[in-house]
C-alpha cells in the first residue's frame, strides 16, 4: 500500500494580458482611492504613477489572474483599488 498523496493545490486562474491603456483608463478611480485613503494632494500624482507602473509590471509578469467568469472591468477595478490601498498605506508609513 503506497503513501497517500497530499491533496492537489487548487488550480490558479490563467494569466490574463490586458493593455496598459486599460489600466491607465482607471486613473480617476485610483486617484479617488488615494484621496479617500488620506494621501496628501501634493503626493497623489507620484503615488498614482507608482500604482500604474506597478500594475503594468504585474500584468507583464503574469501576476494578474482574475477568476474566470467575473466582469472584466469590475475585477480590474477591484485589483487596482487593492494596489492603490497598498501604495497609500506604504506612503503613510514612510511619512
Task: Describe the protein in words.
- This protein has a single domain (20-93), classed as Rna Polymerase Sigma Factor, Chain: A (Orthogonal Bundle).
- 60% of the residues lie in helices and 0% in strands.
- It is mainly alpha-helical and 95 residues long.
- The termini are far apart.
- The protein contains four helices and no strands.
- The longest helix is centred in the last third of the chain and has 22 residues, at 72-93.
- The chain is elongated.
- Helix 2 (27-36) packs across helix 3 and helix 3 packs across helix 4 (72-93).
- The model has no long low-confidence stretch (mean pLDDT 91).
- The relative contact order is 0.19.
Helix content: 55-70%
Q: How many domains in all?
A: 1
CATH topology: Rna Polymerase Sigma Factor, Chain: A
What pattern of helices and strands is seen along the backbone?
Answer: HHHH
Radius of gyration: 17 Å
Total helical segments: 4
Query: Structural class from helices and strands?
Result: mainly alpha
* Strand count: 0
CATH class wording: Mainly Alpha
How far apart the termini lie comes to 61 Å
